[in-house]
């Protein structure tokens, strides 16, 4: 029967990607870590990790095994702390998924505060604007902006992002201000060039949400370039307010069509359901919730 130490070792190997890194995290000799993996594989009866020159990745069976035993290992560790009347601490590696632009502004500052309070935690931040699979990416939790399609995940709502129409005073002086979103077809619009839907902007018309297809002479696949173009007077833009907050505060761009802004986009943290959420995960979620509650979104 597998020992708890062997299970802890396997979790560390998967999360750190190599025997050497796992040994360093656990504070154990490399040979001891290698022996624990061999003993566990003999006990389970299948290969759990595939060894390459520099890295070690879980096999399909190993990944399934990891996702089953990781919550159990965390629960046992916290039970040991409670039994000894010791304060439950945040320890170990925490893998967090987050959107590319949102993370530096909001997630990283929260992680800095969290890690200063919990020095035994490591944070591995994985950035992607896609709704990646938490199991495949071995994520403990992820921040998601938008409606949640996956009903199998547990979630906690942090707030919502306001989406706005905006332009530079120099553009409005030359071309005027649209009084209704339908008039955007008569204006130059700075559009993202990532997908076809980026040129279709949602707006509220009374109690109904509609959309309009816009176009313009300038397009870009990067947010900062789009905002610079709008600030330079090349056209009207549409984006979450937090991304252009500084431009608004500095007076370089102005908000328009405020009464027609589409509904705000929800922000959630999601994680896999389990009997017990590890302290490291719970405490980071609490930190994020507190900071985002007071953030200018």
From TrEMBL:
State whether keyword Transcription regulation applies: yes
Which SUPFAM superfamilies does the record match to this protein? Periplasmic binding protein-like II, Winged helix' DNA-binding domain
Q: Which part of the chain is the HTH lysR-type domain?
A: 1-59
Source taxonomy lineage? Bacteria, Pseudomonadati, Pseudomonadota, Alphaproteobacteria, Hyphomicrobiales
InterPro entries named among the record's database cross-references: LysR-type_TF_proteobact-type, LysR_HTH_N, LysR_subst-bd, WH-like_DNA-bd_sf, WH_DNA-bd_sf
Annotated protein name in UniProt: LysR family transcriptional regulator
- Work out whether the entry's keyword set contains DNA-binding: yes
Similarity field: Belongs to the LysR transcriptional regulatory family.
Entry keyword set: DNA-binding, Transcription, Transcription regulation
Specify the superkingdom. Answer: Bacteria
Organism of this sequence: Chelativorans salis
């Amino acid at each position: 029967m597998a020992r708890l130490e062997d299970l802890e070792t396997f979790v560390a190997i998967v999360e750190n990607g190599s025997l050497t890194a796992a040994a360093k995290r656990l504070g154990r000799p490399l040979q001891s870590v290698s022996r624990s993996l061999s003993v566990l594989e003999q006990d389970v009866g299948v290969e759990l990790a595939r060894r390459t020159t520099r890295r070690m990745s879980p096999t399909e069976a190993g990944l399934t095994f990891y996702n089953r035993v990781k919550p159990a290992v965390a629960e046992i560790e916290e039970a040991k702390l409670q039994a000894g009347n010791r304060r439950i601490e945040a320890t170990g590696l925490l893998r967090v998924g987050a959107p590319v632009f949102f993370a530096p502004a909001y997630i990283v500052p929260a992680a800095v505060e969290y890690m200063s309070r919990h020095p035994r935690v490591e944070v591995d931040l994985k950035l992607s604007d896609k709704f990646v699979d938490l199991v495949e990416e071995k994520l403990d939790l992820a921040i998601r902006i938008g409606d949640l399609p996956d009903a199998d995940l547990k979630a906690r709502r942090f707030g919502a992002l306001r989406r706005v129409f905006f332009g530079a005073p120099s553009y409005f002086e030359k071309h005027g201000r649209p009084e209704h979103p339908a008039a955007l077809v008569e204006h130059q619009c700075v559009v993202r060039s990532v997908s076809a839907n980026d040129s279709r902007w949602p707006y509220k018309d009374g109690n109904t949400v509609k959309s309009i297809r816009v176009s313009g002479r300038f397009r870009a696949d990067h947010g900062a370039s789009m905002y610079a173009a709008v600030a330079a007077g090349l056209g009207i833009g549409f984006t979450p307010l937090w991304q252009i907050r500084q431009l608004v505060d500095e007076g370089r761009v102005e908000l328009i069509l405020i009464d027609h802004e589409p509904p705000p986009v929800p922000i959630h943290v999601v994680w896999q359901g389990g009997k017990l959420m590890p302290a490291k995960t719970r405490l980071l979620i609490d930190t994020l919730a507190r900071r985002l509650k007071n953030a200018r979104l």
